[in-house]
Design a protein that fits this description.
This protein is an alpha+beta fold. It has 11 helices and 10 strands. About 55% of the residues lie in helices and about 15% in strands. Strand 6, helix 8 and strand 7 form a beta-alpha-beta unit. It is rod-shaped. The C terminus is likely disordered.
């Protein structure tokens, strides 16, 4: 229960504090591990140096004894003691014992012979031991001169070594704590600097809530990961703002478009309710006007549904068009029956057997929208030209007319929902300003492009680019690949 509470407290900490604590902890562990390794290495190196020194002293003493052929008898004890004094180092004891462990000669410098009992050996050895709180380095070596067999023992006090080692460890620990404190301070400053863009992003989100979608996060460094994150955030806010404005504009336009036929129907029904129902002429006129506006309202709602379907096209299964040229010719035949005065010309021989990665229903819907516009804004005996060209993995369809065209200032907006170049004339021709929006959405859902070129009173050219379907693959699979 306590562990869960501690975990909950840590999870509620600010990220800056978490980064500071974690960085300080990791630095502390790494620094102490480094110091521990360094301490062990230094201690071992210093011990090895002491062993080398005591071994050098032992070799020097043995060489002196053997070269001068000291008779290790009682009468030579004075000479041996002088030699021991000469060889002995500070804080060290040297003693000579026989094979039974009886001490013959002892020389000491601040080391008591009571700290360690004599111990004869048959082969050389170096040992480190502690006796009554005293740290001792002991080396024993056997010696044979004439008939004498004994052992020379050197005992080195390691108290200075222990104190130095302890002081070294304490110094490392103190400097380690100081270094970690400085690292913690630096980690806090670094965390603050790293989190500053995120705090700026949070502040921008609060401003968005208070002031609107136009707020953006200032970018200081575009190259690092945080800068890229801010770029993505700003791009997302641009899209959200654009989508919000489009949605607002759509609601306003839809409300305006729906308001007009509803107002007309309401006016005629009010007229009939007041006094027109008793007048056959007024009754007939009001019914015809109401039916006309009702049909217009029905068409507008249908187009809104089509636009919604076009915007949510992803993930639905659609078949390919196996013979593009033949499909275009069949479509032209249908239009000729509806518009007998319009002359339709086509150049589709190069794509006659070309498979197109688009559903037949949606292709026909797009072509009907574009051709209907070409007919609607042309004269009665106009010519509409349809041309198809294949370019590597795409097909370009160009629909040209010589109608009234579109003024240059209106071209960027003609695919917006409910946009009409001339509202009065468009209303007379039955348009709601949704056709090109629907066509563009459908084309883009199939990874295509829609481009419009026009000159006012000279004509319009609409070009659509659509991907060619790989034979044996569905468009859904092709889009995923």
């Amino acid at each position: 229960m306590k562990l869960k509470s501690n975990t909950s407290i840590f999870s509620r900490m600010p990220i800056k504090l978490k980064l500071t604590l974690w960085s300080s902890f990791i630095l502390f562990v790494l620094f102490m591990a480094y110091n521990a390794v360094q301490y062990v290495y230094m201690e071992k190196w210093m011990m090895d140096q002491e062993k080398v020194k005591i071994q050098a002293n032992m070799n020097q003493l043995l060489n002196e004894l053997l070269e001068n052929e000291y008779a290790l008898q009682n009468k030579a004890h004075a000479s041996i003691r002088q030699l021991f004094y000469k060889v002995n180092a500070p804080n060290q004891l040297i003693r000579l014992m026989d094979q039974h462990g009886e001490t013959i000669v002892t020389v000491s410098s601040h080391v008591s012979d009571e700290w360690l009992q004599p111990h004869p050996v048959t082969k050389s050895e170096i040992v480190f031991t502690e006796v009554d709180g005293q740290s001792l380095l002991v080396m024993r070596s056997p010696i044979t001169v004439f008939q004498f067999n004994g052992t020379i023992e050197m005992v080195k006090s390691m108290d200075d070594f222990t104190q130095l080692s302890t002081a070294f460890a304490q110094m490392m620990f103190i400097f380690g704590i100081g270094a970690v404190a400085l690292c913690g301070l630096g980690g806090g400053v670094l965390a603050w600097q790293m989190l500053k863009p995120i705090q700026s992003m949070a502040l921008t989100i609060r401003k968005v809530k208070q002031k609107g979608l136009q707020e953006r996060v200032p970018i200081q460094n575009k190259g690092d990961e945080v800068g890229k994150l801010i770029l993505l955030f700003n791009d997302m806010m641009d899209q959200v703002e654009q989508s919000f404005h489009q949605q607002t504009q759509f609601v306003e336009d839809a409300s305006h478009e729906l308001r007009t036929p509803i107002a007309i129907i309401e006016g005629h029904l009010g007229l009939l309710q007041r006094w027109g129902k008793n007048d056959p002429a007024i009754l007939e006129e009001s019914l015809q006007a109401s039916m006309q506006e009702l049909l217009r309202l029905k068409g507008l709602v249908q187009e809104l549904l089509e636009l919604n379907r076009a915007e949510h096209l992803d993930g639905e299964p659609y078949r390919t068009i196996s013979n593009l040229g033949e499909g275009i010719q069949l479509l032209i035949q249908k239009l000729v029956l509806i518009h007998p005065s319009i002359q339709f010309e086509n150049e589709v021989a190069s794509v006659m057997d070309m498979p197109l990665a688009m559903g037949e229903q949606h292709f026909e819907q797009v072509m009907l929208i574009l051709l209907d516009n070409a007919v609607k804004y042309s004269s009665c005996d106009a010519v509409v030209h349809i041309k198809a060209l294949a370019h590597e993995d795409t097909v370009q369809l160009v629909i040209k007319d010589k109608g009234i065209g579109i003024p240059e200032g209106h071209l960027p907006y003609v695919t917006n929902r409910f946009y009409r170049v001339e509202r009065a004339r468009s209303r007379e021709q039955g348009g709601n300003g949704l056709g090109l929006s629907i066509a563009k959405r459908i084309i883009e859902k199939y990874d295509g492009k829609l481009m419009i070129q026009s000159e006012y009173m000279k004509g319009t050219s609409v070009t659509i680019s659509l991907p060619i379907a790989s034979r044996g693959k569905s468009p859904e699979r092709q889009r995923k690949e």
